[in-house]
Fold this sequence. Notes:
By secondary structure, this protein is an alpha+beta fold. About 15% of the residues lie in helices and about 30% in strands.
Amino acid sequence: xxxxxxxxxxxxxxxxxxxxxxxxxxxxxxxxxxxxxxxxxxxxxxxxxxxxxxxxxxxxxxxxxxxxxxxxxxxxxxxxxxxxxxxxxxxxxxxxxxxxxxxxxxxxxxxxxxxxxxxxxxxxxxxxxxxxxxxxxxxxxxxxxxxxxxxxxxxxxxxxxxxxxxxxxxxxxxxxxxxxxxxxxxxxxxxxxxxxxxxxxxxxxxxxxxxxxxxxxxxxxxxxxxxxxxxxxxxxxxxxxxxxxxxxxxxxxxxxxxxxxxxxxxxxxxxxxxxxxxxxxxxxxxxxxxxxxxxxxxxxxxxxxxxxxxxxxxxxxxxxxxxxxxxxxxxxxxxxxxxxxxxxxxxxxxxxxxxxxxxxxxxxxxxxxxxxxxxxxxxxxxxxxxxxxxxxxxxxxxxxxxxxxxxxxxxxxxxxxxxxxxxxxxxxxxxxxxxxxxxxxxxxxxxxxxxxxxxxxxxxxxxxxxxxxxxxxxxxxxxxxxxxxxxxxxxxxxxxxxxxxxxxxxxxxxxxxxxxxxxxxxxxxxxxxxxxxxxxxxxxxxxxxxxxxxxxxxxxxxxxxxxxxxxxxxxxxxxxxxxxxxxxxxxxxxxxxxxxxxxxx
Length: 601
Ligand SMILES: *[C@@H]1O[C@H](CO)[C@@H](O)[C@H](O)[C@H]1NC(C)=O
Ligand SMILES: *[C@@H]1O[C@H](CO)[C@@H](O)[C@H](O)[C@H]1NC(C)=O
Ligand SMILES: *[C@@H]1O[C@H](CO)[C@@H](O)[C@H](O)[C@H]1NC(C)=O
Ligand SMILES: *[C@@H]1O[C@H](CO)[C@@H](O)[C@H](O)[C@H]1NC(C)=O
Ligand SMILES: *[C@@H]1O[C@H](CO)[C@@H](O)[C@H](O)[C@H]1NC(C)=O
Ligand SMILES: *[C@@H]1O[C@H](CO)[C@@H](O)[C@H](O)[C@H]1NC(C)=O
Ligand SMILES: *[C@@H]1O[C@H](CO)[C@@H](O)[C@H](O)[C@H]1NC(C)=O
Ligand SMILES: [Cu+2]
């Protein structure tokens, strides 16, 4: 049919309509989210969140232009749930973005909820729960959008999906409770027990000599970034986070949690040996390395399954491709006329409950009583006032069409991968480690790349800084957060409220969304406190704990906890402080932080 039509000299719009009509399909998924058991590292069987009785959960696959319907039933019984489709713009369907407490109320146990959106972009994505702390329990899977007009289609023979992840033997809810606790004043993140590839270890990818495969590599981990390399083979990077790039040769790549790369790998012409594919967790992220942790995971390119699977040799140093060097093939120029620039300064500190929180500009994120999208929809022109979303929402109101610049200073010695919903961001500047504040760096726009790399998840280095730009061309309430799930838990989150008055006249919230809120008594109108009369009255809003009492410092808490731990270990029991016994790993972490902080012990 396409052949015969191409014989006509048809006006371009007719061809366009034809191609849309002929290609667009509706892809429907019925997902029952429920507990299953799994043992992906072969060390420990545990309860895991699966779909329709299965884990790993299925890959979602669609074409650009398709409508996707996901009917979700929450069969967990003991936890709310929901799905976010990581990286999708959801242009015109912000209410389907799946950010819990922001664009919808979470789906209560026993509840049903339908996501319904069209796909506007090709590339490698993933879907996961956006209920706080939930996806590392298993609710994370690939989302692949095929491109009927792919500019790289002729560069490879076959595509292969390969996921990376990290794995905890404990469930997230107890881990979160321990993490956000006075017994963990330094905010040491729980270290995973294992690295996984394709949610397992020792996976084998059967390959044929001479063929070129496009590996779509997705880091679905909670915390760990991974270095990845193919022993004996080189990669050509052709896509990051849904952005096609000029092919870039690489021996090793680095994927933070939530990042994706498509790489072309051409096989050798002979089948005399098989080769490891190695993933190695970035141990810099971990405050302490637990005894027995194997931070590496191996899969194999199998040319001949009668031949051995050789162990990977260790590499001496990690020297991954720097994604800042990538150039999008659409050559989208630097957004050089900034309309609205603001800072997000990252810091970690203790609050009055002794736990360690993460802050943007002195505010740690706390979910408002009313999901911010519903605040935007129900407050008329006052929706343009960031104050009504609550101080702990870290809300920024962006006007339609503006070029937005985010200057991020990481005043923390950790690496953080920042993700924005609803957009790609140009990475116009990234400092090295320990560079300090951007404002002190004497960098100007003349130093920025002419065609900056864009992606939806961007690494900022320890005590370094980055500058990000994007155009506010997608009305919606979009989450912006660190994609280390521990830092979502500790509050490293902001809210981009984009063109709220336009949203009021364009968005239509389906009945099942309201029903999810009703079932849990969550208000759906008014400011962050649920006040619909005086929108500037935020009394009753959710806030963070008070600051530490004067005279207390994080160092003091570390010393205090350390002495408790020491006493605990020495005396077998101590209860005056109510401190739970710390595990060996936590103990090591406390010791390491104490050593670093210089507190005498
Ligand atoms: C993968 O192989 C290694 C080395 O033989 C082994 O230690 C590990 O337990 C295996 N993992 C699984 C999940 O079977
Ligand atoms: C999905 O949304 C479209 C457009 O609003 C609507 O026509 C369709 O009925 C919806 N489908 C489902 C299953 O909700
Ligand atoms: C890896 O996982 C992807 C996505 O679930 C699947 O399509 C692929 O077949 C898996 N490959 C192997 C070798 O397990
Ligand atoms: C494999 O053989 C083809 C055809 O002879 C050649 O073009 C290609 O360079 C060879 N590839 C490798 C990796 O040697
Ligand atoms: C993991 O791999 C890295 C790099 O090859 C190596 O330095 C490290 O020792 C390995 N870790 C273990 C536990 O084997
Ligand atoms: C800032 O950079 C400009 C251009 O490279 C240079 O001329 C100037 O001296 C620098 N200023 C400082 C304070 O380093
Ligand atoms: C959203 O759609 C509008 C209208 O088609 C378009 O101008 C804009 O670029 C889109 N935004 C994104 C992020 O795709
Ligand atoms: Cu972080």
